[in-house]
Amino acid sequence: MKSLVEANRHWPFKRSYEFSEGVKLELGTRTLIMGILNTTPDSFSDGGRYDEIDAAVKHAQAMAEAGADIIDIGGESTRPGSDSVSLEEEIRRVVPTIQAIRRALPDMSISIDTYKAETARQALEAGAHIINDIWGLKGDPQMASVAAEYGCPVILSHNRHARDYSDLVPDVLADLKGSIALAHQAGVRDEAIWLDPGIGFAKNYEENLSVMRNLDQLIGLGYPVLLGISRKRFIQNTLQLPAGDVAFGTAAANTLGIAQGCQIIRVHDVLEMKQNAKMADAIVYYKDVHR
């Protein structure tokens, strides 16, 4: 891991996005907070809590009040061992929720957490602004074209079907470069690409820790990086605590990511992680963050 001064050379990737109906997002002035909203009955941490529209909207409003910059809406659990969801069911879960949240929070940026191109398309038509693809455009051959057609930011996460690494960190970087190439081939603009190391996906405990120690290498690829480690199993295993009791461990891991140059953190506990990020920004980037 590089020193803070060396890591800071990569910070920030300053980008401004203006979405439909005047929604704006500024990247590069502080760590952005992406709040997690699962409209699923079986997600590992909050399954079944927000699968009704009224509950989902109230939770989105609470996250906005706590300081979320983006609400990430997903309709299919990605926990290990979870059952796949049909396209029709995923769309049924997410599209009405997106529409309701757009009405309740017209200034909020919304991302759709899906690897299915048609879900992404319908979500964007319903008012989402960002695609968050855990398969890095490799799960559906049409996803890159949808991202290019709508000109929206797309988050390319690292994932594999098997942990067949020859050299973990270089392999992760190579896989992400493959996703970037797919994006470019489809016409996705470079400034619309964000990366995610895919912590918890196709990696065991030691491999997750190794990728966390080497996030600066991912930052070095030259794209904004989102870190999504909230309540994940490697934190639970380290602390020997259940998912709902690992906020302090999540904050520690987020701080390490911010110190290495990650610019967006995806979290369940928005209020606590907003404070975490604000303090980390003040220390790492030597700046006044009173805002």
The CATH topology assignment is TIM Barrel
Kindly, what is the distance between the CA atoms of the first and last residues, rounded to a whole number of angstroms? 30 Å
What is the helix/strand order? HEEEHEHEHEHEHEHHEHHEH
Number of helices: 11
The level-1 CATH class: Alpha Beta
Low-confidence stretches: none
- Percent of sequence in beta strands: 5-15%
User: In CATH terms, what is the architecture?
Assistant: Alpha-Beta Barrel
Corresponding CATH superfamily: Dihydropteroate synthase-like
Instruction: Give the number of DSSP strands.
Output: 10
Q: What composes the largest sheet?
A: 8 strands, parallel
What value does the average pLDDT take?
91
What's the gyration radius in Å? Answer: 17 Å
Structural class: alpha/beta
As for the number of domains, it is 1
> How much helix is in the residues?
40-55%
Q: Main sheet: which strands, in order across?
A: 8-7-6-5-4-3-10-9
General shape: globular
Pfam families: Pterin_bind (PF00809)
Family: Belongs to the DHPS family.
InterPro entries: DHP_synth-like (IPR045031), DHP_synth_dom (IPR006390), Dihydropteroate_synth-like_sf (IPR011005), Pterin-binding_dom (IPR000489)
Domain Pterin-binding: 31-278
Structure, explained:
- The protein has helices at 4-8, 53-66, 87-104, 117-126, 143-150, 168-186, 205-213, 215-219, 233-239, 247-260, 270-284, and strands at 15-18, 24-27, 32-38, 70-74, 109-113, 130-133, 154-157, 193-196, 226-227, 264-267.
- The longest helix is centred in the middle third of the chain and has 19 residues, at 168-186.
- It has 291 residues and is α/β, with parallel strands linked by helices.
- The chain has one domain (4-284): TIM Barrel, CATH 3.20.20.
- The protein has an 8-stranded parallel sheet with strand order 8-7-6-5-4-3-10-9. It has a two-stranded antiparallel sheet with strand order 1-2.
- 43% of the residues lie in helices and 15% in strands.
